[in-house]
Design goal:
single chain, 364 residues, alpha+beta, 5-stranded antiparallel sheet, binds adenosine-5'-triphosphate
Length: 364
């Protein structure tokens, strides 16, 4: 286990691609943090900088407070005590499962007996103990990734780096392996960085998520913090589904869309509303009611009138677009499917002030 600090880390490709644009990130002892973001946001470049496959143009990477990478001071990858797992599994096709896992220990100071014990134990942990004599070509993708996990863990690295490790697997297996990776993390507590563009994968596997966009960090937090309290419009829109509404905050607790519509904002959002030019409202936080029907606690809520322009019954929920006078875009609303409103229904929407979250525009 180790702490890992990225300090003003910078990587520029060519003369202008700021792939990693001066980021700061602290990864704690035994923490699994994921780098999440759209294609090209700098996740893989950050991971490769940490692994030592490429060198930074500015800033530093520190392990336990010791610089391992900064311009002019580079510890080579093989001396960083890190293991990396790739999307392509990268297991050796001409070695058996057992030999693949044992390979990393060849260069360590362990006896043959110790190596054998460690390899067998690790194969059991990843549930591959019965397949030690097979070759990778005789394994499924999920099994090959388990071999890669065992090979990475058997050398007891202080840091584990995972680069989209599940993207080559089919959907069902991907879901199963997420839990497997989290289980292994709970067993070994190795400080880990997990690169993915899949938000559910990040939410299941990680202690904290680091959202990246255009080489910068937009927000770092637990899945719940990021989902419930996004700081920027980008975060709100990237993680889950949301309604983003533009406007300004003329006074605490109020958000003005510029037309007739003003939203009451809860104490949560109001605290930081200054300088925020959007609010984010999640579709499932909007109550949908038939026109004229009473709404419990209506006085404290934001009540909007509107008309359903599209309604889809999805079994466990109902998905609507509701046109609201004064708003340019229709609102996306997720309702209770036991009461379905077809297109053309006049409705009232009820939104608690605490569900109206002011967010900043993103820098990118
Ligand atoms: P993906 O999810 O598609 O893998 P990513 O978030 O991992 O994307 P990076 O691979 O880190 O993104 O790339 C960040 C930026 O740096 C992109 O604009 C990419 O085109 C650029 N880039 C990456 N590697 C190089 C390279 N070797 N030479 C030039 N530009 C590069």
């Amino acid at each position: 286990m180790a702490t890992l600090d990225l300090k003003h880390l910078l990587k520029i490709f060519g003369s202008e691609v700021r792939a990693v644009d001066g980021i700061d990130l602290n990864i704690r002892h035994g923490e699994l943090i994921s780098l999440l973001g759209p294609s090209g946001c700098g996740k893989t470049t950050t991971l490769r900088l940490v692994a030592g496959f490429i060198d930074p143009d500015g800033g530093a990477i520190e392990v336990e407070g010791e610089v391992i990478s900064s311009p002019g001071a580079i510890v080579p990858p093989e001396r960083r005590n890190m293991s990396m797992i790739f999307q392509s599994y990268a297991v050796w096709p001409h070695k058996t499962v057992y030999q693949n896992v044992a390979y990393g220990l060849k260069f360590r100071d362990v006896t043959i007996q110790e190596s054998d014990q460690k390899v067998r134990k690790m194969l059991d942990i990843v549930q591959m103990g019965h397949l030690g004599e097979r070759y990778p070509g005789e394994l499924s993708g999920g099994q090959q990734q388990r071999v890669a996990l065992a090979r990475a863990l058997v050398v007891e690295p202080s840091i584990l780096l995972l680069d989209e490790p599940l993207s080559n697997l089919d959907a069902n297996l991907r879901e199963e392996m997420r839990f497997e990776i989290r289980r292994l993390h709970d067993e070994f507590h190795i400080t880990s960085i997990y690169v993915t563009h899949d938000q559910s994968e990040a939410m299941v596997t990680s202690d904290r998520i680091c959202l990246m966009n255009h080489g910068k960090i937009e927000q770092v937090g637990t899945a719940m913090e990021i989902y419930d309290n996004p700081e920027t419009r980008f975060v709100a829109e990237f993680v889950g589904v949301t309604n983003s509404i533009e406007g300004s905050s003329p006074s605490p607790g109020l958000f003005d869309t510029g037309g007739d519509l003003k939203f009451k904002v809860g104490s949560n959002g109001a605290a930081g509303a200054e300088g925020k030019h959007f609010v984010s409202i999640r579709p499932h936080r909007i109550g949908i009611h038939p026109e004229g029907a009473p709404i419990d606690g209506a006085e404290g809520q934001n009540i909007l009138v509107g008309e359903v322009t599209r309604g889809y019954f999805l079994g466990n929920s109902a998905d609507y677009l509701v046109k609201v006078p004064g708003l340019e875009e229709p609102l996306r609303v997720e309702g209770d499917p036991s009461r379905f409103f077809p297109a053309g229904t006049k409705v009232r929407l009820a939104i608690e002030p605490d569900s109206v979250i002011p967010v900043r525009a993103s820098e990118g």
